Amino acid sequence: MATKQTLTPHHLAKLHVHTGDEVLILTGKDRKQRGKVVRTFPRSNRVLVEGRNMVKRHMKPDQSTRQGGIIEKPMPIHASNVMVICTECGEPTRIGHDRVPQGQDQKLRVRRICKHCGKAIQEQSRIVRS
After folding, report:
1. Percent of the chain with pLDDT strictly greater than 70
2. CB-based contact 75:42 (threshold 8 Å)
3. CATH fit for domain 10-59+68-114, picks 2.30.30.30, 3.40.50.720, 3.40.50.200, 1.10.530.10
4. CA 106 to chain centre
């Protein structure tokens, strides 16, 4: 009997990787390669890295794909198998969190920091879907 993929509840789904981050892949056929995170799937702890973990799929022609046949598409990688690359020092690093007052109201907000150099990791522009 096949088991369903376990999904974490929405309020507990958090990742150390954000959309737009550059990451180093640690395991699998694409290990030691870098790529940019295109999309995150927090409930299943997976990330989609641009141009990595490509697989071949046999597709029938339909409304969205006029041409059928064998196509290559990227598949998600588990978030534990990627490591964020620091925007300051350029090294793969673990992520730390720091609470600092930001904005006009000086409210405490969490920012991600590099465990190697201690500097803040810059947020990349996120892709807005319409």
Report:
1. 91
2. no
3. 2.30.30.30
4. 29
